[in-house]
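A favour, since you know our structure tokens better than I do. What I am after is a single protein written out in full by you. Could you add the entry underneath, on a fresh line?


***
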Amino acid sequence: MATLSASASPPWPNPDQNTSPSSNPNPNFLPDQSQTLDFESLMPPQPKSPQRYHSPAASPPGFSSAAPPTVLHVAFNQDHACFSAATDNGFRIYNCNPFSEQFRREFDGGGIGHVAMLFRCNIIALVGGGPNPHYPPNKVMVWDDHQGCCIGDLSPRAAVRSVRLRRDRIIVAVEQRILVFNFLDLNLLHQIETYPNPKGLCAVSQLSDSFVLACPGLQKGQIRVEHYSQKKTKFISAHDSRITCFALTLDGQLIATASSKGTLIRIFDTVQGTLLQEVRRGANVAEIYSLAFSSTARWLAVSSDKGTVHVFSLKVNSSISEEEKPQNPSNSDTAITPSNSSRSFIKFKGVLPKYFNSEWSVAQFRLPEGSHYIVAFGHEKNTVIILGMDGSFYKCQFDPVHGGEMTQLEYHNFLKPATETTM
């Protein structure tokens, strides 16, 4: 199920800012040393054997092919500082602030369907995809960008739907299973049976001392949460309909969930399974594309097929001081403000439908329809980053006090070398 290609050096080299240009295919992409892995002291050297995979050409940032490739998958890294784009001819890595292409790897006639980064580490997980996959779609290839080649692979014997990385684990989602592998030796540690999961829904925490994994349960609308550090499993009946999207906070203590209806988003405590808050995206059925917590769990961002990104104010983080909480947020789509909507209609409980008791978004940003967008919070205060499968990159800012329409700060097409910025 797992293999490591042998080399003269350990399979998980530690990124080094002092690496010479000749040994580093991309000297411009320097890792954040606070987020890198030091496996060199943990893994013994492997005996020599021939490489099994060909190294693609390393194209410099801004290099333009004859025609822009087709994007097959986009994803942020764990701290939303970077993002990856898997295309029908390779993959690319970008920095969010400031926006810039860091590097790309192009394969002759072969596509990549999924790319999973580990902060800014040189180790990247790849899965083949598109009409002509460069790697088998039922394998996870472990790519070392310092060596410019694959140094290991995982073979779950089923089409890979998604991959999640931690410093100590690789999590692979297939149609009805979640597989947890040890990062050091690629040994399989745990298998979890799930409800049919064609999207590969899976989320993991990122704190080193707390490993929390969330995935679909065995029943429709159910979330399973594994607290590995506590050796505890919690099942949460989140929705009556099929789960279509969820997200964990970095510490894994909170989870936001959405169903196939796409009207309500619910926030649960993952330890007790308690419903803490419910917010409403809208009244019409929608497909939720992504959910994202801010780093302090003060805000939640939601993107959907309706072409609007919403930001909600959360009341679930008691560590946020009262003076930091937004005052009198408003919503341009309704006369009912999120801060007082429930109180305004409490006397009509049982008379008006639940729709009027819902908490609405504080801020919104409207996008061109027809593309799949994902969202995350930027490192600058009160900003969100939006990525589109059409190659669009938006940076927007919201007003935490007055809410309403967000202000667009930047726009780029990340598939084109010459980007246009709108201020």
Notes: Residues 341-344 form the longest helix (4 residues). The helical segments are 341-344.
